[in-house]
Amino acid sequence: MKSNVSLDGVLPVDKASGMTSHDVVAIVRRAFSTKKVGHCGTLDPLATGLLLLTMGRGTKIQDLLMSEDKEYTGTLRLGETTDSQDADGKIIETHPVTDFSKEQIEQAFQKFTGDFYQIPPMISAIKKNGIPLYKLARQGKSIEREPRLVHVYAFEVKDIRLPEIDFRVVCSKGFYVRTYTHDIGQVLGCGAHLSSLRRTKSGKFSVEGAVTVEQLRTVPAESLSEHILSLPAVSKLRGA
């Protein structure tokens, strides 16, 4: 790739379902013929939406961008709990689903607002003695996890089609939406898991206008570079 194209900055990508965040990093590295690419906040394979890729000197602000609040839209399914707390996992419990009212459902969501503690799922990238928990889970092991202080700034119950509920949540970094839906299912007494998830915002960045994975695979690098936000542009967007 010609050096007249600046690769220092942030590339907002709309991640497709069925791929890891590292898969997206690999695609971007190939698209721009560069190795200096990182991502800000892992999205599970099930999830779609905004994944911020830092490039070149932009990798120096990766931790800063990862620390910002996130917004998600998603769907939870009542009556089934899974070992991963999402639809990619194995169903471990099933329960009948009561004909809950909107008020009952919103009261369950309301229990998880402001500051509270979450226990991260075993199937996660959190490390114990240098080993990711998901690797231990694959070995059939379950270890005690430290509760994490998280924050929910806002939520919205968007649609109820029992046993499914569509919702929106604005939350702090380190928040597990999978665990959020699991815990809401526990409050309602019938269990639940996350059946779909889309990250719509991260800090001041929005998924609207983000480059798609298909574009990364097919559009020439010169054209793709127009989607890279320069470091001064990022600073201005964040109000820094």
Tell me what the structure shows.
The structure is a single chain. The chain is of the alpha+beta class. It folds into two domains: 9-67 and 204-238, 2-Layer Sandwich (Pseudouridine synthase); 70-201, Pseudouridine synthase (2-Layer Sandwich), CATH 3.30.2350. 26% of the residues lie in helices and 34% in strands. The protein has helices spanning 21-32, 62-66, 102-110, 133-138, 177-188, 213-218, 221-224, 231-238, and strands at 9-15, 37-40, 48-55, 70-78, 80-82, 91-94, 114-118, 127-128, 131-132, 148-161, 164-171, 192-202, 205-206, 211-212. The strands form three sheets. Strands 1, 2, 3, 4, 7, 10, 11, 12, 13 and 14 form a ten-stranded mixed β-sheet that branches. A two-stranded antiparallel ribbon has the order 5-6. Helix 3 packs across helix 5. The longest helix has 12 residues, at 21-32.
Keywords for this structure?
globular; 240 residues; two-stranded antiparallel ribbon; 34% strand; 2 domains; Pseudouridine synthase
CATH architecture field of the largest domain: 2-Layer Sandwich
Rg measurement, Å: 19 Å
Q: How much is the average pLDDT?
A: 91
- Taken together, the total number of domains comes to 2
Helix content: 25-40%
N-to-C series of helices and strands? EHEEHEEEHEEEHEEHEEEHHH
Termini separation (Å)?
Answer: 31 Å
Number of strands: 14
Instruction: Kindly report the name of the CATH homologous superfamily of the largest domain.
Output: Pseudouridine synthase
Total of DSSP H or I helical runs spanning 4+ residues: 8
SS-derived structural category: alpha+beta
Principal-axis shape equals globular
CATH fold-level name of the largest domain:
Pseudouridine synthase
Which stretches of 5+ consecutive residues score pLDDT under 50? Answer: none
Major β-sheet profile: 10 strands, mixed
Strand content: 25-35%
Assign the CATH class of the largest domain.
Alpha Beta
